[in-house]
Amino acid sequence: MRSAVVLLSGGLDSATVLAIAREAGWRCHALSIDYGQRHRVELEAAARVASALGAAEHRIVPLDLRIFGGSALTDAAIAVPTAPAEGIPVTYVPARNTIFLALALAYAEVTQSEAIFTGANAIDYSGYPDCRPEYLAAFAQLANLATKRAVEGFPISIEAPIVRMTKAEIVRKGAALGVDFSLTVSCYNADRDARACGSCDACRFRREGFALAGIPDPTRYRR
Questions:
Q1: Per-residue pLDDT tens digits of the chain, which is 223 residues long
Q2: Which region holds residue 12: left if phi is over 0, alpha if psi is between -120 and 50, else beta?
């Protein structure tokens, strides 16, 4: 069985990507990052999702990006916005996907994995630059220049199966593959009981995705 590393945040998108990889026959090494995010309950969700969807293993890497801050997700002094904003929002974490993919790349070499799966999406998203297809293509080129495995003739691919899907399409795909979305947490400002705020970008995209997909939203909201 082919092996892959799957970046698993605990949210709707990455849960669907794990289900897609499993359905395609990959042996999945799920990888989550504890980067000091204010919504750390997503890590508990990631563990639930990894177990429910049959990941071969699930590892959580501690890497505290609060040391840099610069984002509403890593700096308590910056509020999570409750309304859409122009440009790249303050929930963007500087270089986050580059850091996460680099960690996944190291894990892929150790597990002799042929692919890294990411839940990056460039349709219903907040405009983060490191979610674009051209960024993922550039990272794939870097990955195959930088690794012992690739130099020895075993390249690593970057798989982003939902990158061009709308949120409604992602919801439908996940539902068709048996994803239990009640296990997931997407909210940037979820409380300790994993209840969503209902007003951040992540909540808005998630809620609209379920509505447009015609599938009941299992999200628990604080209000």
A1: 899 999 999 999 999 999 999 999 999 999 999 999 999 999 999 999 999 999 999 999 999 999 999 999 999 999 999 888 788 999 999 999 999 999 999 999 999 999 999 999 998 777 899 999 999 999 999 999 999 999 999 999 999 999 999 999 999 999 999 999 999 999 999 999 999 999 999 999 999 999 999 999 999 998 7
A2: alpha
pTM for this prediction: 0.96
Domain boundaries defined on the chain? 3-213
Residue 6's nearest CA partner among 93, 111, 115, 138 is 115
Domain with residues 3-213, CATH architecture? 3-Layer(aba) Sandwich (3.40)
Instruction: List 27's β-bridge partners, or say none.
Output: 3
